[in-house]
Amino acid sequence: MWATSTKGCIMTEPKASQTTDGDGRIRPEDTLGTLFLRSAAEDPTAVALSGNSATFTWQRYREITSSMASGWRALGLGPGDAVALLIGPSPEFHLVDTSVLLARGVPFSLSPEDPSDRHGLLLRLSGARVIVTAPEHLKVAHAAAADAGSLGIRVVLLGSSPAASSADTASGAVSLEEVVQAGRASQLPDAGPGDPEDIATLIFTSGTTGTPKGVRLSHRAIVSSLASTDAIAPIGVGGKVLSFLPTAHIAERFMSHYQGLAFRLSIRSVADPATLYDEVLRVRPDRFFAVPRVYEKLAATTHRLIEAAGLSATFKASLDHVRREQETGQHGSTDEQDQRLALLAPIRAELGLERTEYRGVATAPSSSDILELFSAIGLPVGNIWGMSEAIMCTMNPPEKLKLSSVGILLDGVEGSIDADGEILIRGRNLYSGYLPGPDTPEDPVDEHGWLHTGDLGVIDEGGYLSVTGRKKDLMVTATGANIAPAQVEGALVGATDLVAHVMAVADRRRFVTAVVGLDEDALIEFASVHGLEGGVAQLSRHPAVHQEIERAVAEANAHLPKAARIRGFLVADRLWQPGGPEITPTMKLRRPAVLEEYAEQIDALYR
After folding, report:
1. N or C: which end of the chain has fewer CB within 10 A?
2. Any bridge partners for residue 467, and if so which?
3. Is the dihedral of CA 549, 551, 552, 554 positive or negative?
4. Rounded to whole angstroms, how far apart are CA atoms 484 and 468?
5. What is residue 164's DSSP assignment?
6. Closest CA to 402 of 335, 461, 469
7. DSSP assignment string, 324-371
8. Which domain does 93 fall in, by range?
9. Tens digit of pLDDT for each residue in 403-454?
């Protein structure tokens, strides 16, 4: 890979997609459908999808989705027509989504946690006439259809006709099995491979700020990101991965569903997040992608395992080696470090990640302490950066991670830093515009093809990009200091397991304060160790809890510039749940909502 830099712009030269078995799998003319059919033909008897509900081989996967695709077309689905999926992580999600792709339709996901009026808005924006739902979300689906108005939306229920109760069918739902049977009876020819510029999915963004934007992603954009990801961090064909994040987010779709289609991955769906760590141990995946909070919980487990195994000194020496690497930029092992990592092998195995060829993290800033820990035990985790409008933009090369960075630009992606520090991106990975609607935002792609991302950052002399914050989130204090909230928030989250979420406050204020959301598991453990009683509301006010957060604030402040140091905090008296008022399903802060909810308490911190 090479890069040239001119006036702050870096461009990477496109390469053919290479995989660990040496073949170039992805071609410029490919669609997700052609990639799926190629994978299904390679090893028909291998397991493609599994979960609590069912297991499907690649042969069965292809047979069902082919019949289902014909069924959609027999029921009137045409090229470019949208289908809404109200389905969480499960084998059925992949079956339905792929079948709509094979029918040349546009599948997209709704979040079950969202209110029905938002569902209705997304259905109207997309023009979808069909919602496919799991039985547990049937009432939500009917409410969404009602909120959509006069679209005449058909609700399709997962399962066979007997599984769809008489009450369900009476309420207007038909079973997915009926769609399959309609396809088998139709004898329609295949819809054909489609065109790379066809829309493959819709991603609805801006859940943190207001009216959602419907991002149209083409097969070209997704396939381009698949190829460039494989070029920098080769994806082993036939490997095992887990699917456990919200299916409405592009990160989950890309890391499990789309990579699965292209590289014949066996996907284990985890419907209940509480069972994730058990599933990691059972499956022992070949690649692992998660949000920062998952790694933070794994890190807490790692510390306990190291201490119980009597390996604290070995770990500390390995951590010192990692920090020297990061400080000097000189990557490479030594005999001593190899011996340390060999001693730490049982820790990797007890985490269930010893087979992973690659581990990635994205969607929110990651703590440097957490990333250093995983590198020190031989499981380096690379930051990734992308966005709904551009999918994958950067990755850390597995052999040369820079933990403070989100990595280098992917093949075929150009990057530039604007005069005000905003990151600009250009390439085949860009989206195909927003869905038209009454509040459609201005296209952030300028006349030269540059996507204005809204993120702030810097590119160093080695081509590594560091994201310093969001342009719209930048806080300007009453004294004129510019502060990126992510820097403050990441420092505090990384200083204690007790804190799950932090929102920094400083805009037009005299100094920085923080609203703190507690971590449920860590709070339970903390209460047990310290002999505390009560629920979240009571514990959030307990002096021992505040003392631990005060300690963490002092630790965080030691690493922050003077203007960014936290001088006061308040602790939320209830847990912040994904998809709730304070955070999105992917655990991004809903900043305006938090400011409104805690306005009086925040004001009190400045009196």
Report:
1. C
2. 457
3. positive
4. 7
5. S
6. 461
7. HHHHH------HHHHHHHHHTHHHHHHHT-TT-SEEEE-SS---HHHH
8. 32-194+237-272
9. 999 999 999 999 999 999 999 999 999 999 999 987 788 899 999 999 999 9
